[in-house]
Predict the 3D structure of the following.
Amino acid sequence: MKPFTYERAESPAAAARAAARPGARFIAGGTNLLDLMKLRIETPRHLIDVNRLGLDRIEPTEDGGLRIGALVRNTDLAADRRVRRDYAVLSRALLAGASGQLRNKATTAGNLLQRTRCPYFYTTTMPCNKREPGSGCSAIDGFSRGLAILGTGAACIATHPSDMAVAMRVLDARVDTVAADGTRRSIPVADLHRLPGDTPHIETVLAPGELILSVTLPPPAGGTHLYRKVRDRASYAFALVSVAAVFGTDGTARFAFGGLAPKPWRAEAADAVAAQGPQAVAETVLAGATTTRHTAFKTDLTRRTLAAVYADAGRG
Amino acid sequence: MRFDQPATTNPIDRGRVVGVPHDRIDGPAKVTGTAPYAYERHDAAPDAAYGWIVGSAIARGRITAIDTRAAEAAPGVLGVVTHENAGPLGKGRFNTAHLLGGPAIEHYDQALALVVAETLEQARDAAALVRIDCVAEEGRFDLAAGIDGAEVPGPFFGKDPDSAAGDFDAAFAAAPVKVDQTYTTPDHSHAMMEPHATTALWADGRLTLWTSNQMVAWTVGEVARTLNMPPENIRLVSPYVGGGFGAKLFLRADALMAALGARHVGRPVKVALARPQVPNNTVHRPATIQRVRIGADRNGVIDAIAHESWSGNLPGGNVEMAAMQTRLLYGGRNRLTRHRIAALDLPEGNSMRAPGEAVGMLALEVAMDELAEACGVDPVELRIRNDVAYDPEAGPDRPFSSRPFVDCLRRGAERFGWSRRNPTPGRVRDGRWLVGMGMAAAFRGNQMSRSAARVGVDGRGTVTVETDMTDIGTGTYTILAQTAAETLGVPLEAVRVHLGDSRFPVAAGSGGQWGANSAASGVYAACMTLREALAQKAGFNAGDAVFENGAIVAGNRSVPIADVAGREGVWVEDAIEFGDLDKTYAQGTFGAHFCEVGVDAYTGEIRVRRMVGAFAAGRILNPKSARNQIIGAMTMGVGAALMEELVVDTRHGYFVNHDLAEYHVPVHADIPDQDVLFIEELDDKSSPLKAKGVGELGICGAGAAVANAVHNACGVRIRAYPLTLDKVLRGLGAVT
Ligand SMILES: Cc1cc2nc3c(=O)[nH]c(=O)nc-3n(C[C@H](O)[C@H](O)[C@H](O)COP(=O)(O)OP(=O)(O)OC[C@H]3O[C@@H](n4cnc5c(N)ncnc54)[C@H](O)[C@@H]3O)c2cc1C
Ligand code: SF4
């Protein structure tokens, strides 16, 4: 860990201003950032603690949606009565992630911005374009079981590991931010993460120092909410494939996918064929899939997981 | 005390303290944080500096230059040790690669330098500034590619790599029913809770190591050989060990580098491995490729059985003896076992919980399930039909000391409800789950080893036991206290046990499931000698005297042992020495595992639903700690079956998934329900306590029971461990 300075910000505006300092980073629960700092994968020079900014409330919006503060803990968000009633897919996705202890620390913004679990990203002696741009990708011809098959590129096939973000994607959430100069904006969660292209080290559209204030959910859409996470052990493992699904009462359905792509994945074209059943959805989603010898099983697994989700929704 | 005749009735048979499920006597210290572990000896080494190991970034090659100047100039740094300034170093007998590498590099993450600094963060930070230039050389990293050039290894702990009886080839060719299958098991990481850790202190040329180690006396010898110093000048202290599973049997880099670092900076130094360093810097269980051939008649009675195993290691390293159990477990006149070793340049392979059997049973017991299927015989019945009362290689002249294997099978089957199993795979459905039942035998050899102890009693009647035996979380403190209390007729509360200090008499240590039986026998021997000393001092004839309620009683005379001990107390030392009863008799521990799994018909996810195990391991010294060992080992068996795998990057020669987020072991949600029953057994040829080992038995066969249950659930037979869902999906039909 490189020496760094630390400050506790007193207001969102002050935090965003402080973040203009070179090498500054926000720290929330620290469950991802601290691990990466210990391994020198992240080397911030200045840490801005955002835990006391008062961004830890869940409030109704004027149009009947829900605004989730950036610092709301994963545990609290999953347990919130309104979330459980109106956005059950989000609650389920959160509870499928990490462990109880981690969820007590992990925050809404931190979860969205957590970095990949690609094992070569974590092995600092090995080439990795995301960690060290231009050094090469060790995973494509190496061990890639947990990695992506959609939206990847020649430079990187890492997945975005979040469960929560997959649910937010199916719910069409928006991410509210403030920049160093005080400008606010609202970004659809669909646009928050970037695909790797030639620059896998640039993962989001956030400007340096841009602070996430909250995540806003649109008014409840109703329907049956499911989150199915397939993994290598019963708990405390990242998704091989996960499906967030909202089935409408009118035969429509919406899906988002985890474990398959560098960002929470959604194919609107797939939603359009939802009425035709899981195979049609799977074929549409998987249309552009590129697999390795370790990820080849994910196409079949995606089909089968969708079939399981349909069955659970009573549409089997 | 020599043990070369079967045990007769003795004070342990009273069973007032031994055999009772006492809570651990060290429990309160552990849960209140007052049991200091190796890295926490601030009391003994108050101003210890922190060491951080710099590991090799390549698997094989040579260092051409090391530049430590930037690291040495970094804030807080006290010094950097490398092969250039460490002084001449020898090598221990038990480690294959050098614990401090250079100029030759023998494996990835081999220690090449130690940075010592005032704080952990400073040491870790400066470690990144050590520049090591090296040239990489071609390495051999792929076991499957290496087996053609595999060689016959030397004997392993006195056991021959090959064995044969009768004419296997002819009998197998003639057998009406044949199984011939190859199974693979991957490299495993010990993944114990406490990583390797040591605090080192030098004073007047003498070295003290507070370390986390299973085998105190062995390791003193290894330190002496490595540092070229007399063993008398080395003190090793290891009273609390946060798990080892074999990873801490020997001297490892933490202890050596702490000693070198402390000498270099003239201050105590402590070193702990970070979790991601453990898999590649230390040791692991080697991967195996195993071919099992069984020839039987149509009733499943075996006439020919062969088990061949290939594993890899650094040149000079040990072979994994995966076919050992096949020499003893089932009958059959025509037999063959063979072990071969391939040279690999991966990190060093070595013992992990039940070396040999743990992975050998994963192959043999699935082959038995395949035989049961081929013959149409129930798997429990098949094993009963092939039970044998003697060592089947040696013949009836070498009977088993005791072998309640069939009891284990029957009682386990009954407890589990085996009769409800549908033998046709894929027939039982519970919602989305395909449900199956499987079973496997458990078997692990019984080994004993000389073990000494010092025992004393003081004027208050407090008994103190001192031995260099270790408690690696297994319950040793408690069973040794129980043994002393029973033998001396005092309450458990009157006994103090001090362990893990090389100043104490040399015990068996914790390994090979020999620890409990051997060390408790050593304490028993010392206590019997103490009884004689006390009886003599009090004027009793030791033969007539009964020790109970804290007193020596004979006829109507009763004298409290506290009074006999007096102010100066009475101390004795003795050891148990084992004769050749383990040669005259085959000795083993037995059991039967039963398991029910669900396989998700959609996703192929396998989830264990319940497990039952029945075990026979001689006298169970403490049913609570024994059960604890068994359920831990069964859990490890589930890990081996379903998820544990160190993934080899065959390009770079290292284990990729080197932390506990990526190297999966079972979590609570994976282990819903385990039921353990012990079969009553006293083995008078094993030790005066009539006990045997139990620490490793539970892992042997557990994973095979899971694999067999998976086959029964969904009809997919997977012979490459672990059974991950992608392998299930390959065999599973379309979603229904
Ligand atoms: C062993 C393990 C298992 C796990 N398993 C899962 C799993 O199964 N599923 C899953 O989804 N997750 C899993 N996680 C990841 C966990 O969910 C994340 O670590 C956590 O959500 C991160 O939140 P945090 O608040 O601790 O983030 P931090 O570590 O504090 O920060 C993460 C990043 O977000 C940035 N950041 C934080 N807050 C803001 C803000 N307000 N504005 C802008 N930037 C910000 C930080 O600068 C940093 O770059 C696991 C983690 C571990 C260690
Ligand atoms: S997949 Fe991405 S994160 Fe993984 S090694 Fe390749 S570039 Fe690095």
